[in-house]
Write a structure and sequence with these properties.
The chain has a domain of 29 residues. The protein is mainly α. The protein has three helices and no strands. Helices cover 44% and strands 0% of the residues. The radius of gyration is 44 Å and the shape is elongated.
Amino acid sequence: MQEDKQEVQTQVQEQVQVQGQVPVPVETPPEKRRFSRARLIMIIVGILMALLVLAVVASMVANNGEPATVVPTPSPETTEESGDGLEEGELSQYASDPEVQAIGKALEELEKKFDETRVREDALNIPLLDFEVSF
């Protein structure tokens, strides 16, 4: 390495032909160490494996060395009674309210209009295309 630097320095001095001056040392930039792709992949895989082992050890320490236990999720209990506290067939306190009755009538009229309205438009059919075209 040192010999290469001296050789480069002498070549530069010969090309410049400096006379009567102190030669200036020529420094070459240091060589960059590059990792090969395979070595980089191995480093990444090693780090991932170390993290995996660390996670397994941490889970065993958290469970005092026992395997993790699976606790079943409780299902909600269903009952036959309704959630509003009314018996079947019993009317709510708002059933006789005139405003609620007006909303009910308006809803019935809207449903009736919706049932009578034709949603499908026959005039907007896709045009028929003639695929038998010859040139």
